[in-house]
């Protein structure tokens, strides 16, 4: 998957069934390979440059050998103040303390999740550089601070606090190839629930619906309501279009999804949901310890 060169194979890298190796320096477009994923559906594939994507999209997390797990876990034991990994395009650094969060039993933090979202964005851009990948959704991935700025501050909902986040130059800096997020199919948003739980919300612009995925089965209608208002405001601000209909789009809280059975894997589930939803992969029960690595 996205092996960031720091022992991050899928928890803070992209699932190996998709295949993105960001390289030691974190640069995009490193070695990419998907072949021979254990249990992956071998039927028709879409090849995007060196990336190979299964069109059937059945992407179970690959099993790792004990030796591989041991080697990867070494990266979670680096000195906490050591700068272990730098993603050159975004200048994001992961310190030893961040990588420690990838060890089983730990809660993922903003830094690890935000780097993962950035890598997913770069993967999405690479996919859509080729015309033969038209079956894949075009996506935009916000970071974990977006909702805090949008409505979780002291003043409540404030579109102006995030209005400039989607200006063309800002989008380009985040790895987004499109000049407007209104041109994508899905907007994927990490949700921090009171610093105790991670979930993910999706604005499905193509199918005109909003979705909320929670590994504990919870629902947050307020979150989806604010995201609907955000889309209304974005249409008005960027295109001078009145779209009050967005407020009436159906809201879904899927329950037939992989479920969390402990108090620490929520960030890993968020990562998996964002990964799989962005390419419409079939989600099944996954060993979260292996997905982390």
How do the SSEs run, as a string of H and E?
EEHEEHHEHHEEEHEHH
Inertia-based shape: globular
DSSP E strands, number: 9
Lateral arrangement of strands in the main beta sheet: 5-6-7-8-9
**Rg:** 18 Å
Q: Give the N-to-C terminal Cα separation.
A: 10 Å
Let me know the largest β-sheet.
5 strands, mixed
% residues in beta strands: 5-15%
Structural description of this entry:
The protein is of the alpha/beta class. The protein is built from eight helices and nine strands. The protein has helices at 66-73, 96-99, 110-127, 146-150, 168-173, 221-239, 266-278, 288-292, and strands spanning 45-48, 51-54, 83-87, 92-95, 139-141, 186-193, 197-204, 209-213, 251-252. Strands 5-6-7-8-9 form a five-stranded mixed β-sheet, sandwiched between helices. It has a two-stranded antiparallel sheet with strand order 1-2. Helix 3 runs parallel beside helix 7. The longest helix has 19 residues, at 221-239. The protein is globular and about 55 Å long.
